[in-house]
């Protein structure tokens, strides 16, 4: 007994009879734990909210989860897409319920622990004021979070679930019922020759496209920004305005104009430049190699103004004292660029530059608007200039291979997320301190 009293004194326990474990166990029925803690208003509100949710949603959730397993039972009457949607909504509602249910238990346990240590239970008015003060940020964030769940999470989950079904042109509901096929779509993607060859070719071009186009636009922007920032250059404002113009014009307008300029038969590139100089015409739209070259050139033109604006702002913020100290030490231009200019540029803009790579990895507009992913390639379900995102578009809206498109989308999402995660982690601008 003496040992227990000594332990209570060490932990400053004022009310040892009030047991947090009992409060948590009572909260298995929401609100009872709060009532045990003498927070009757809070307990009544929680009990009413949970009871109302269960009464209103129990039938929908149980039916939805059952339909998620079966995906329908009667062809032409049951639409598997509806069953899948209702099942996903049931999962979201269940996740919400379990989250708040666990928070209810934790709340009762923590309040009981505080009461045990001598905390005075506030009255209803004080409790409401404290809840308002602590919960106000969540009240503002709540509607956006709720909307995000149904605008982003729901479609994403729907796509993920489709990847494990046999939903395609020849097995489309409501005429047919969908079936769960496990990882069959992913296995087919890597074992069937047509799918495997197309996937490897498209993924290879996507990686080349992302790296080459983005790196060139960054390099061009850096070169021009450093050149224009030189004190000897006059009319800086005019030059910077001209360089920003490609960014000011809507991208889709520029792409459509370039698709005409690069046309094999009447495009200005062939008629005014290539043919007079080399007495030949380049098949920009008919040969996959030249289509890819044109796409990279167009993306460099479209992408460099934004990066140029970033670099220009950073360069103007670099103190001239750094360069003066380098001159005193006898550093040449290359050494000043490598040890002062380049580190400053990368440190300040690294996250945005990483986003440029991620954006181009999924840059659907330029691929589709320039040549619709063409030209066609024999033995492939994708065009010669298709990247993963445009291939997915074609599989979905043109070939109606929804299951394969969903499987490729999952792989695409994992690739982008993995690349962005590791690059952001390596970025010095995301660390608390950075040294040059």
Automatic annotation (TrEMBL):
One Pfam family hit: BPD_transp_1
Tagged with keyword Membrane: yes
Transmembrane segment boundaries: 44-62, 82-103, 138-164, 207-229, 241-262, 289-311, 340-359, 402-422
Compartments in which it is found: Cell membrane
SUPFAM superfamilies recorded: MalF N-terminal region-like, MetI-like
This protein's GO CC annotations: maltose transport complex
Superkingdom of origin organism: Bacteria
Membrane topology: Multi-pass membrane protein
Domain ABC transmembrane type-1: residue ranges: 203-423
Main location: membrane
Any one GO molecular function term: ABC-type maltose transporter activity
InterPro entries linked: MetI-like, MetI-like_sf
Keyword vocabulary terms for this entry: Cell membrane, Membrane, Sugar transport, Transmembrane, Transmembrane helix, Transport
Protein's GO biological process: maltodextrin transmembrane transport
Function, as annotated: Part of the ABC transporter complex MalEFGK involved in maltose/maltodextrin import. Probably responsible for the translocation of the substrate across the membrane.
Recorded family membership: Belongs to the binding-protein-dependent transport system permease family. MalFG subfamily.
The protein, known as: Maltose/maltodextrin transport system permease protein
Species this protein is from: Salipaludibacillus aurantiacus
Organism classification: Bacteria, Bacillati, Bacillota, Bacilli, Bacillales
């Amino acid at each position: 007994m003496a040992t227990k009293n000594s332990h209570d004194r060490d932990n400053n326990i004022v009310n040892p009879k009030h047991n947090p474990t009992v409060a948590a166990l009572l909260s298995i029925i929401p609100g009872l734990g709060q009532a045990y803690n003498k927070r009757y208003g809070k307990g009544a509100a929680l009990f009413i909210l949970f009871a109302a949710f269960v009464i209103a949603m129990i039938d929908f959730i149980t039916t939805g989860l059952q339909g998620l397993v079966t995906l329908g039972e009667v062809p032409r009457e049951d639409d598997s897409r509806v069953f899948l949607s209702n099942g996903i909504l049931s999962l979201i509602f269940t996740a919400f319920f379990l989250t708040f249910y666990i928070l209810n238990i934790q709340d009762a346990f923590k309040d009981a622990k505080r009461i045990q240590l001598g905390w005075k239970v506030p009255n209803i008015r004080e409790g409401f004021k404290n809840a308002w003060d602590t919960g106000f940020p969540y009240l503002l964030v709540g509607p956006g979070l709720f909307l995000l769940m149904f605008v982003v999470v729901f479609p994403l989950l729907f796509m993920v679930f489709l990847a494990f079904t046999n939903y395609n042109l020849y097995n489309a509901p409501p005429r047919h019922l969908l079936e769960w096929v496990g990882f069959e779509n992913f296995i087919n993607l890597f074992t069937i020759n047509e799918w495997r060859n197309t996937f490897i070719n498209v993924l290879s071009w996507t990686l080349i496209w992302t790296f080459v186009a983005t790196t060139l636009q960054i390099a061009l922007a850096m070169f021009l920004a450093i050149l224009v920032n030189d004190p000897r250059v006059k009319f800086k404002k005019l030059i910077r305005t001209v360089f920003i113009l490609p960014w000011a014009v809507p991208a889709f307008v520029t792409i459509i104009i370039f698709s005409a300029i690069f046309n094999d038969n009447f495009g200005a590139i062939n008629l005014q430049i290539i043919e007079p100089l080399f007495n030949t015409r380049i098949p920009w739209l008919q040969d996959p190699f030249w289509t890819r070259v044109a796409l990279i050139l167009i993306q460099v033109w479209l992408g460099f103004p934004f990066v140029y604006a970033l670099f220009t702002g950073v360069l103007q913020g670099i103190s001239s004292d750094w360069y003066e100290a380098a001159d005193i030490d006898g550093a040449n231009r290359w050494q000043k660029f490598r040890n002062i200019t380049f580190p400053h540029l990368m440190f300040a803009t690294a996250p945005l530059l990483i986003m440029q790579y991620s954006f181009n990895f999924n840059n659907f507009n330029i691929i589709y608007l320039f040549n619709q992913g063409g030209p066609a390639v024999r033995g492939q379900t994708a065009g010669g200039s298709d990247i993963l995102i445009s291939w997915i578009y074609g599989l979905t809206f043109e070939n109606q291979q929804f299951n394969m498109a969903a499987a490729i989308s999952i792989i695409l999402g994992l690739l982008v997320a993995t690349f962005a995660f590791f690059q952001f982690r390596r970025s010095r601008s995301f660390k608390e301190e950075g040294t040059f």
